[in-house]
Amino acid sequence: MIKQIEKTVAYLQERGFKAPEVGIILGTGLGQLVDEIEIIEEVSYKNIPNFPTATVEFHKGKLIYGNLEGKKVIVMQGRFHLYEGHTLQDVTYPVRIMEKLGITTLLVSNASGAINTTYKKGELMLIDDHINLQGSSPLAFKGVEALGERFTDMSAPYNKNINSAIETIAKEQNITLHKGVYASVVGPQLETRAEYRMLKIMGADAVGMSTVPEIIVANHLKLKTAAVSVLTDECDPDHLKPVDISEIIAMAEKAEPQMISLFKALIKTL
Fold first, then answer.
1. Environment class of residue 4 by beta-carbon count within 10 Å: exposed (0-12), middle (13-18) or buried (19+)?
2. Using the 8-state DSSP alphabet, how is residue 190 labeled?
3. What is the reported pLDDT for 245?
4. What is the pTM of this model?
5. CB-hemisphere CA count at 13 Å for 86?
6. Domain span at residue 248?
7. Quick one: DSSP state of residue 161?
């Protein structure tokens, strides 16, 4: 993997990806942040050596480099998921590339379902902790110790200082921001009523199909991390209705401006 990483990094550096400070991963239906960036360079995933390819139709599949609030940023417009047939090493490969290019902070967004019945769709949740239900770890491969500590500490996977700053910004901007636990499942099917009940018993406030693998690798690489979920549907097993994925995307797009506002104000302070 080291040789693959070196080849990918060299290609991007040749394309002008120089000394970024912040990496951003945009989740399902969350692509509007790109409109706020002064773009210096962008490249399709399919043209990047050793990069996976996004197969989900509502994920753009571009790596974007530019200026945002006075900082050099790299933005993944579209991420990878285990349910697409990728391995966990594929899913997290871009995090390793962004770290080698120079980022020290990783901000992640996702669309998720609200398990906590006091949360409403269209609101945001700051991820304070997570539960990995994807069946494996992106660090479970031979030779991982050459890239970082094998037994990575996960006692505080989300940076407390950054989370505190995000909470302060939300209060200043009158944005409803919950703080809770995110459970990451494989998907792509949505959960049954019994599964929602199980997740609630386990302590999850929201559920999705991403984010946790990237956060694990970010901690492996000693990056400062924070993640925000856009709550796109309400997962009350006693009043569960069929979910249309187009409605989830529409809700993510509707709620996204608040997430963008948080991220922009945060980046200005980093």
1. middle
2. P
3. 84
4. 0.95
5. 26
6. 2-269
7. H
Can you read off the two tokens belonging to residue 140? 């479970």
- Other beta carbons less than 10 A from residue 161's beta carbon: 9
CA-CA distance, 97 to 99, in Å (whole number)?
5
Mean pLDDT of the chain: 94
- Three-class secondary structure of residue 166 per DSSP: helix
Give per-residue burial for 90-109: e unless 16+ CB within 10 Å, then b. bbbbbbbbbbbbbbebbbbb
The enclosing domain of 91 has a CATH number of: 3.40.50.1580
The tens digit of pLDDT for each residue in 11-67 reads 999 999 999 999 999 987 778 899 999 999 999 999 999 998 766 655 578 999 999
Count up the domains in the chain and report the number. Answer: 1
Residue 17 CA to residue 20 CA, distance in Å, equals 7
- DSSP one-letter string for 54-102: ---TT---EEEEEEETTEEEEEEES---GGGT--HHHHHHHHHHHHHHT
